[in-house]
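JOB MANIFEST
job_type = single_chain_structure
chain_count = 1
residues = 62
[input]
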Amino acid sequence: MAETKKIRIQYYRSANSTPVKHRAVVKGLGFTRLNQIVERVDNDSIRGMVKAVPHLVRILES
């Protein structure tokens, strides 16, 4: 079985004072606290979510 590619994302800047849509994207990515790192499947939907809030999250090299 082929291994699915993963992407590591870090939530490094607070979503306070951002539009409600940005907060919803951060929550949708699975973040619950600042400086948290999550691992998600690397697909177009996740990449689109990260692209919507590049000022709040960063992609970590794995």
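[summary]
Residues 6-60 form a domain with the Ribosomal Protein L30; Chain: A, fold (CATH 3.30.1390.20).
The longest helix spans residues 20-28.
exit_status = 0
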